[in-house]
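Risk register update: the risk of archive-format incompatibility is retired. Evidence:
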Amino acid sequence: MIKLHEPFISGNEWKYIKNCLDEGWVSSAGKYVDLFEKKITKYTGAKHAVACINGTSALQISLRLVGVGTNDEVIVPSMTFISPVNAINYNNAKPIFMDNDDYYTIDVNKTIEFLNKKTRTILRKKIPITINKKTGNHIVALIVVHLFGNATKLDKLIDLCRTKNISIIEDAAESIGTFYKSGRFRNKHTGTVGKIGCLSFNGNKIITAGGGGMILTNNLKIAKKAKYLTTQAKDDPINYVHNDIGYNFRLSNIQAALGLAQLESLPEYIRKKKIIHEIYRNKIDKIKGLRISRTSHFSKCNYWLNIIEIDKKLSKKDFLKKIQYLYNNGIEARPLWYPNHLQKKYKKCQTYKLHNVKKIYQSRLCLPSSSQLTKKQQDFICQKLNNIF
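Archived output:
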């Protein structure tokens, strides 16, 4: 089976993990956690990085760190893996669903329109807060998701959010290795523009720690509080005094060792994945009715996953038939995620002009994109696609 995206073990993974085993440091203590955090800050340019157990926990903690609480609201795109939406719910807050643009990131123009027309900003104890006109609730944060390695264009949005005192949380789970190449954030890594950024090292990401996540911030106070909360909020570790409610969200030394070795290979993985993307473009764009999704012009993408655009909407039955045909031929292909505003638990949540989400959900297909994917495998995939479209 040609998997959608699987880990590529090609560097110091065995060496570093063996070192953990030899030295007996296999849990949350050990040199590799600190080293992994330091290397992530060097690569991304963030001043601080705090390792945690996965990307979802990073999002959950980040929302708490910016003050999201009961009955607050957080703006989030509908088309994304459900993780950031659930993280909002974990903090007893409610999502407001925004549309996605053609690069699959949040529709910035509609978000700006919503903030200008559907909210009002007032002063509370001399601090501006933004109120949703429809619900009367406080909008505390906005989560932007850099889907499939595509950076969200934040130039205009970040100023408006600053004026309205709305914290921007960047879900960069899929975009490690993606940098802005033009505009005011040129050369900045995704996850380092907003107040907090979140990375994921799940097994299906471009690099993996067998799980794991990372909180990025340029604010020392936020970084210290993140470390405190993710390590059980210990005020006195000897006498087990905890003055706040913390979480057991620590990354293990073994996971950090794996992640560090993977990070060392990231530039090579991105180089390979760019070639994979170009081969797909050259072949699939020649198949009538199909096109490989382009990356944004203002960022240097990590090419995490390649997406086919189908020029017509397919019925669910026809779509599943095509996916099953590929699977029967040893190719794992998947549709995009089911839009979150349609999920059972979130159907009653507020939405705003979700015109593009339905279209892209019904006409997109994710293709195998592992770093070690061979040209022969791509030729085979494209041949089978040609048979069914």
